[in-house]
Amino acid sequence: MKLEVNIDKKYFFILLGVLIVIGGIIGVIALGSVPTPGHAISELQTCADGETLKMVGGVWTCATAATSGVTSPACTFCLSCGGNWPSFQGRIIDLAYDTQMARGTSCSGEVKSVWSNPKDLCCK
User: Fold this and answer.
1) What's phi and psi for 107, nearest 5 deg?
2) Does residue 75 contact residue 120 with C-beta atoms inside 8 Å?
């Protein structure tokens, strides 16, 4: 069985153009649809000021920082280790001698901008 189709060049290019336009329209419709971005804010659980959302026993619940057990970081940068962070874990030497955030000697005081080299990584 042999099938022959005879189309003039002019009609072939018109048909090809129509198919390209239809394909483009279908592509724009398919790619232009906006997916649902997720949940509306009204569907999410809200917590009071000072509380964070955490998973407890497979259920989301609100908890304050005091009940979550985190009162200070496990590690911090200091000019030298001591105080609440006595365990030396490593040292950073800043070759550019830029100011960086760290606690004072023996991990005293709050984290502040210091111009000192090196800084120690100290942990509890």
Assistant:
1) 55, 35
2) no
